[in-house]
Amino acid sequence: MAADSPAGGVAFGVSARSCRAAGPGTPGVGKTTLGKELASRSGLKYINVGDLAREGELYDGYDEEYDCPILDEDRVVDELENQMSEGGVIVDYHGCDFFPERWFHIVFVLKTDNSVLYKRLETRGYNEKKLKDNIQCEIFQVLHEEALASYKEEIVHQLPSNTPEDLEDNINQILKWIEQWVKDHSS
C-alpha cells in the first residue's frame, strides 16, 4: 500500500499497559493530532507508522501516481511486534488491515466532513488525483469498512473529527475507555 494512498485506514493503537487500540482514518482527519495529544495526557507511547517507515526505510518501492513510497507492511509489522506485545502504545497510521487482530482491543475510526477534509488536504498540497481519491475514500467510508472487516465489529467505533471540540470530546472518550479497560483487566 502506498504510504499516503487512500486505500488504507489508520491504526491508531492505544495500549494501556497491555491494552491496545487502533484508529483508522483518511489522511487529514486528525489522527496524528489526536494520537499525540492522547499520548501526552495518558502517558502511553506514541508511534507514527509513517515516521517509523521513513526512519527504518520500510518501503517496497514508490507509487508515482500518488507521489509517495509504498509501505512494506510485513517489515512494519515485524518492526512493531515487540512494542505491541509489551503494550502501552498508541499506533498512528492510515491503514489498519495489515495489523494483526491480536494487537488491538479497540479501534477508533476518525471521520471528517468532506468540506473540512478537502480544505485540510488542499492545504497539504495533495495533487488533484490524490485529493479526489482521499475524499472518495471518506465519502464511501472505506476505512471504516476496512476496520470492520479486519477486527471484531464490537471493538470498532467511529468518532467525528471536524472541530477542536470533537478532538477534546474524542480524547476524553478514549481516556475514559482506557481507564475502564485498565480497571476491568487489573488483577
Automatic annotation (TrEMBL):
Keywords attached to this entry: ATP-binding, Cytoplasm, Kinase, Nucleotide-binding, Nucleus, Ribosome biogenesis, rRNA processing, Transferase
Subcellular location: Cytoplasm; Nucleus, Nucleoplasm; Nucleus, Cajal body
EC number: 2.7.4.3
Gene designation: AK6
UniProt: ATP binding residues: 28, 30-33, 124
UniProt xrefs under Pfam families: AAA_18 (PF13238)
EC class (word): transferase
Entry-linked HAMAP family: Adenylate_kinase_AK6 (MF_00039)
Role description: Broad-specificity nucleoside monophosphate (NMP) kinase that catalyzes the reversible transfer of the terminal phosphate group between nucleoside triphosphates and monophosphates. Has also ATPase activity. Involved in the late cytoplasmic maturation steps of the 40S ribosomal particles, specifically 18S rRNA maturation. While NMP activity is not required for ribosome maturation, ATPase activity is. Associates transiently with small ribosomal subunit protein uS11. ATP hydrolysis breaks the interaction with uS11.
Origin species: Equus przewalskii (Przewalski's horse)
Family membership noted in the UniProt record: Belongs to the adenylate kinase family. AK6 subfamily.
Catalyzed reactions: ATP + H2O = ADP + phosphate + H(+); AMP + ATP = 2 ADP
Single GO term (MF): kinase activity
Database matches in PANTHER family: ADENYLATE KINASE ISOENZYME 6, POS9-ACTIVATING FACTOR FAP7-RELATED
Positions of the UniProt region annotated as LID: 123-133
Region (NMPbind): 48-71
Identification of the protein by name: Adenylate kinase isoenzyme 6
Main location: cytoplasm
Quaternary context: Monomer and homodimer. Interacts with small ribosomal subunit protein uS11. Not a structural component of 43S pre-ribosomes, but transiently interacts with them by binding to uS11. Interacts with COIL (via C-terminus).
